[in-house]
Amino acid sequence: QVQLVESGGGLVQAGGSLTLSCAASGWTFSKYRMGWFRQAPGKEREFVAAIRWSDSSTYYPDSVKGRFTISRDNANNTVYLQMNSLKPDDTAVYYCATDSLARTMLAGKIGIPDLYDYWGQGTQVTVSS
Questions:
Q1: What is residue 67's DSSP assignment?
Q2: Which uninterrupted H or E stretch holds 46?
Q3: What residues have CB less than 8 Å from 16, skipping those under 6 apart?
Protein backbone atom coordinates (compact mmCIF):
# COMPACT_ATOMS: atom_id res chain seq x y z
CA GLN A 1 0.00 0.00 0.00
CA VAL A 2 1.53 3.29 -1.12
CA GLN A 3 1.68 5.98 1.52
CA LEU A 4 2.97 9.55 1.52
CA VAL A 5 3.28 11.16 4.94
CA GLU A 6 4.10 14.84 5.29
CA SER A 7 5.54 16.43 8.40
CA GLY A 8 7.25 19.62 9.50
CA GLY A 9 4.45 22.13 9.22
CA GLY A 10 3.74 24.68 11.90
CA LEU A 11 3.47 28.34 12.80
CA VAL A 12 6.30 30.68 11.83
CA GLN A 13 6.75 34.43 11.64
CA ALA A 14 7.13 36.21 8.33
CA GLY A 15 10.71 36.00 7.16
CA GLY A 16 11.25 32.70 8.92
CA SER A 17 11.96 29.23 7.58
CA LEU A 18 10.46 25.76 7.71
CA THR A 19 11.43 22.42 6.23
CA LEU A 20 8.72 19.99 5.24
CA SER A 21 9.34 16.28 4.79
CA CYS A 22 7.43 13.71 2.77
CA ALA A 23 8.18 10.08 3.52
CA ALA A 24 7.10 7.57 0.88
CA SER A 25 6.48 3.93 1.72
CA GLY A 26 4.97 0.87 0.11
CA TRP A 27 6.53 1.49 -3.29
CA THR A 28 6.95 -1.51 -5.58
CA PHE A 29 7.46 0.55 -8.72
CA SER A 30 9.46 3.55 -9.76
CA LYS A 31 8.54 7.14 -9.10
CA TYR A 32 8.88 9.49 -12.04
CA ARG A 33 8.40 12.78 -10.29
CA MET A 34 7.41 14.05 -6.84
CA GLY A 35 5.87 17.39 -6.21
CA TRP A 36 4.70 19.75 -3.52
CA PHE A 37 1.42 21.61 -3.77
CA ARG A 38 -0.43 23.89 -1.41
CA GLN A 39 -4.01 24.92 -0.89
CA ALA A 40 -5.24 27.91 1.04
CA PRO A 41 -8.88 28.20 2.18
CA GLY A 42 -11.14 29.10 -0.71
CA LYS A 43 -8.38 28.74 -3.28
CA GLU A 44 -7.40 26.09 -5.80
CA ARG A 45 -4.52 23.75 -5.22
CA GLU A 46 -1.32 25.47 -6.31
CA PHE A 47 1.93 23.97 -7.58
CA VAL A 48 4.93 24.77 -5.38
CA ALA A 49 7.85 22.58 -6.45
CA ALA A 50 8.70 19.31 -8.19
CA ILE A 51 11.68 17.04 -8.57
CA ARG A 52 12.33 14.32 -11.12
CA TRP A 53 13.44 11.24 -9.29
CA SER A 54 15.97 10.02 -11.89
CA ASP A 55 18.20 13.09 -12.02
CA SER A 56 16.86 15.47 -9.36
CA SER A 57 15.84 18.09 -11.92
CA THR A 58 13.78 20.67 -10.09
CA TYR A 59 10.97 23.01 -11.10
CA TYR A 60 9.41 25.96 -9.31
CA PRO A 61 6.76 28.56 -10.10
CA ASP A 62 7.86 32.19 -9.96
CA SER A 63 5.95 32.71 -6.70
CA VAL A 64 8.46 30.61 -4.73
CA LYS A 65 11.55 30.56 -6.94
CA GLY A 66 14.61 31.59 -4.95
CA ARG A 67 12.85 31.01 -1.62
CA PHE A 68 11.88 27.31 -1.72
CA THR A 69 14.12 24.35 -2.44
CA ILE A 70 12.98 20.80 -3.10
CA SER A 71 15.37 17.90 -2.58
CA ARG A 72 15.24 14.15 -2.20
CA ASP A 73 16.90 11.41 -0.19
CA ASN A 74 16.93 8.22 -2.25
CA ALA A 75 18.00 5.97 0.58
CA ASN A 76 15.11 7.04 2.80
CA ASN A 77 12.54 7.58 0.04
CA THR A 78 11.97 11.09 1.36
CA VAL A 79 11.41 14.43 -0.32
CA TYR A 80 12.02 17.72 1.44
CA LEU A 81 10.82 21.26 0.90
CA GLN A 82 13.03 23.91 2.44
CA MET A 83 11.08 27.16 2.69
CA ASN A 84 12.88 30.41 3.43
CA SER A 85 11.77 34.04 3.62
CA LEU A 86 8.23 32.92 4.31
CA LYS A 87 5.38 35.35 3.73
CA PRO A 88 1.81 35.38 5.08
CA ASP A 89 0.67 34.48 1.53
CA ASP A 90 2.51 31.16 1.92
CA THR A 91 -0.04 30.10 4.54
CA ALA A 92 -1.76 26.93 3.33
CA VAL A 93 -1.99 23.19 3.72
CA TYR A 94 1.01 21.69 1.94
CA TYR A 95 0.71 18.36 0.16
CA CYS A 96 3.27 16.09 -1.44
CA ALA A 97 2.32 13.99 -4.42
CA THR A 98 3.83 11.48 -6.79
CA ASP A 99 3.55 11.00 -10.51
CA SER A 100 4.32 7.31 -10.95
CA LEU A 101 3.19 7.14 -14.58
CA ALA A 102 5.33 9.91 -16.09
CA ARG A 103 2.25 11.97 -16.94
CA THR A 104 4.23 15.11 -16.14
CA MET A 105 6.97 14.34 -18.64
CA LEU A 106 6.38 17.58 -20.53
CA ALA A 107 7.42 20.72 -18.70
CA GLY A 108 4.05 22.34 -19.23
CA LYS A 109 2.34 19.55 -17.29
CA ILE A 110 4.49 19.52 -14.18
CA GLY A 111 2.25 21.84 -12.20
CA ILE A 112 -1.07 20.10 -12.95
CA PRO A 113 -2.34 18.40 -9.78
CA ASP A 114 -4.60 15.92 -11.60
CA LEU A 115 -1.57 14.29 -13.21
CA TYR A 116 -0.20 13.15 -9.85
CA ASP A 117 -1.64 9.84 -8.71
CA TYR A 118 -0.67 9.55 -5.04
CA TRP A 119 -1.11 12.21 -2.39
CA GLY A 120 -0.29 12.70 1.25
CA GLN A 121 -2.72 13.98 3.86
CA GLY A 122 -1.17 17.44 4.04
CA THR A 123 0.55 19.52 6.69
CA GLN A 124 -0.50 23.01 7.78
CA VAL A 125 1.88 25.91 7.37
CA THR A 126 0.87 29.21 8.95
CA VAL A 127 2.95 32.35 8.48
CA SER A 128 2.11 35.22 10.79
CA SER A 129 2.78 38.86 9.89
A1: T
A2: strand 46-52
A3: 86, 127
CA dist 109 and 103 (Å) reads 8
CB count in 10 Å sphere of residue 13: 10
Q: Which helix (H) or strand (E) holds 25?
A: strand 18-25
Q: Angle CA(73)–CA(78)–CA(79) in degrees, nearest 5? A: 85
Q: From CA 102, how far away is CA 76, in angstroms rounded?
A: 21
Asked if 69 and 20 count as a contact pair (C-beta separation under 8 A), the reply is no
81 close to 20: Cβ distance less than 8 angstroms: yes
Query: pLDDT per position in the chain (129 positions), as tens?
Result: 789 999 999 999 999 999 999 999 887 667 899 999 999 999 999 999 999 988 999 999 999 999 999 999 988 889 999 999 999 999 999 999 999 889 999 889 999 999 999 999 999 999 999
